[in-house]
Amino acid sequence: MPRPNQLLDPRTIETVGLVWAEHVANRLYFSKLPQYRNEVFDDHPIQRAHHDWIVDLIKERHSKAGIIGQLCFIDKVLTVE
After folding, report:
1. What is the pLDDT of residue 62?
2. How distant, in Å, are the alpha carbons of 16, 52, 53 from that of 8?
3. What is the per-residue burial (b if ≥16 Cβ within 10 Å, else e) of 50-61?
4. Residue 11 region, left (φ>0) first, then alpha (ψ -120 to 50), else beta?
5. Do residues 31 and 71 lie in contact, with contact meaning Cβ atoms separated by under 8 Å?
6. Cα–Cα distances in angstroms (integers) from residue 9 to residues 2, 3, 21, 64, in the given order
């Protein structure tokens, strides 16, 4: 286990931050809970916020076609529109 002084070392924090930023940039995080799927979508504010958050994540990506297809047809958390 690391010691507290190793966790608070600025070099460690910077390295972990860079690794985490790369990890997040290469993955798409969204909820797979059933209440966010298209079948039960009733425009609740929380559902709308989740939908908008996914759309914002997609806008940040360069290769959007595969991601949009997966979210619309496989995970069914976005509509085609």
Report:
1. 65
2. 11, 35, 32
3. bbeebeebeeee
4. alpha
5. no
6. 11, 10, 18, 38
Q: What percent of the chain has pLDDT over 70?
A: 98
Residue type, 26: N
Task: Please name the residue ranges forming H helices in the chain.
Answer: 4-7, 10-25, 45-60, 65-69
Say how far apart CA 69 and CA 65 lie, in whole Å.
Answer: 6
Neighbours of 47 (CB within 10 A): 17
Contacts of 47 (CB under 8 A, 6+ apart): 35, 36, 41
- How far apart (Å, rounded) are the C-alpha atoms in residues 58 and 61? 5
User: For residues 72 and 30, is the Cβ–Cβ distance under 8 A?
Assistant: no
